Amino acid sequence: MTTTTTVTPKTVAQQRVAIVTGGSRGIGRAVSLKLAADGFAVVVNFAGDTAAADETVESITARGGQAMAVAADVADEVAVAALFDRTEAQYGGVDVVVNSAGRMVLSPIVDFDLDVLDQLHRTNIRGTFVMAQQAARRLRAGGSFVGMSTSVVGSQLPTYGAYAASKGAVEAFTMILARELRGRDITVNAVAPGPTATSLFLDGKTEEQIDTLAKVPPLQRLGTPEDIAHVIAFLASPGGHWINGQILRANGGMV
Predict the structure, then answer these.
(1) What gap in Å lies between CA 162 and CA 117, rounded to an integer?
(2) Which residues pair with 96 in a beta bridge?
């Protein structure tokens, strides 16, 4: 008598895929490297610095990870749709979107150039909205969208009015989108860094201003891009999936 044994093939874990906008520099670069280290295939989105994007991809692939660089203006809905199309064609889908692209211009409200205001809000508000819109259409079940706010929304420092206003808008539609995606098994959160040692934060500030701001958190130092990347990676992981519709103030304890 011959006995036939049926062997059930092991399920191969689905490759998780992340798009990181502004992924070539600062916090975005740290997020790209961290997610790649966690096993994601990473699409490094950038606006214009091809060399920085290529260097980030090379850093990932040199460590055995998967990555590619794709240029797109986050506020251009056609370019963003093409970014998602390219990602799906290369890797089969999208699981995590981190919108790290942003602009910061500081000035008292009384003197703020309104043309600059329009440019800042185009990137920070429209850009985040366009990315969130495509994420809502494309993310697979179990996925996450993470936007970027700022702790200045709460601390309300002078000269940050236009920037904080743009991030207040991000916080508002983060909370709403999380509720609109009910039943999809997709989380939507925003991370609000405090003073973080990136070129976006450091440019235009004196050493005295930087030292003063570094002493504001009880931990008495500036944050690093890696500090913020670890928070975002947690939100993108299965361990962080119960956190939804939240603004996480990653700022070392500042009010």
Answers:
(1) 7
(2) 18, 144
For 248, the token pair is: 């996480």
Greatest CA separation found in the chain? Answer: 92
Is residue 91 part of the annotated active site? The answer reads no
Angle formed by the axes of helices 26-37 and 225-236, to 10°? 50
- Give domain 17-248's CATH number out of 3.40.50.720, 2.60.120.10, 3.40.50.300, 3.30.70.1170: 3.40.50.720
pLDDT digit string (tens) for 198-254?
877 777 778 888 888 888 889 989 889 999 999 999 999 999 999 999 999 999 998
pLDDT for 5 equals: 31
Annotated catalytic residue, options 145, 160, 163, 173? 163
Cβ contact 77:130 at 8 Å: yes
Q: Sheet with 41-46: list strands edge to edge.
A: 66-71, 41-46, 17-21, 96-99, 144-148, 187-191, 247-248
Among 135, 122, 143, which Cα is nearest to 74's?
122
Q: What is the DSSP string of 71-135?
A: E--TT-HHHHHHHHHHHHHHHS---EEEE---------GGG--HHHHHHHHIIIIIIHHHHHHHH
Q: pLDDT > 70: what percent of the chain?
A: 95
Alpha carbon distance 54, 101 (integer Å): 17
Neighbours of 187 (CB within 10 A): 23
Sign, CA torsion 123/29/96/217: negative
